[in-house]
Design a protein that fits this description.
The chain is α+β, with helices and mostly antiparallel strands and 155 residues long. It has 3 helices and 6 strands, in the order βααβββββα. Strand 4 and strand 5 form a beta hairpin.
Length: 155
Amino acid sequence: MTATTDYFEYTHTVGFEETNLVGNVYYVNYLRWQGRCRELFLKQKAPAVLAEVQDDLKLFTLKVDCEFFAEITAFDELSIRMRLAELGQTQLEFTFDYVKVTEDGGETLVARGKQRIACMRGPNTATVPSLIPVALAEALAPYSGRTRSLAGRAA
């Protein structure tokens, strides 16, 4: 991850188990990679939020989508690049660029996705919307592509 980028990056090498009988990547893997990128972001950039998840914070995925532009196959090198598209009071939205990286440094956008998340708290039978934790908002600020003041956000 380079300090000058406005995205969080997860790099991935496609394996045989992620392809179908024809040899190209099965579509559900793109959604798995979104989840993996989000998890690694939390681990690396927002560990305090992981502690809240172990307590009672729940990050519900409300919507995911992915648009495909080119096929990829086993052993292709990918960069999954996550950006913050929207930060509300209780919900946020990420975008994901799936970039195939070649040995000579070339890049090809092969897919683009989105994921909408709601922050919830409480027992499983009575969850209610919750404000986005300040620690999460602060960790996401560098990936919004724009400068945003987080001062005054409620905890």
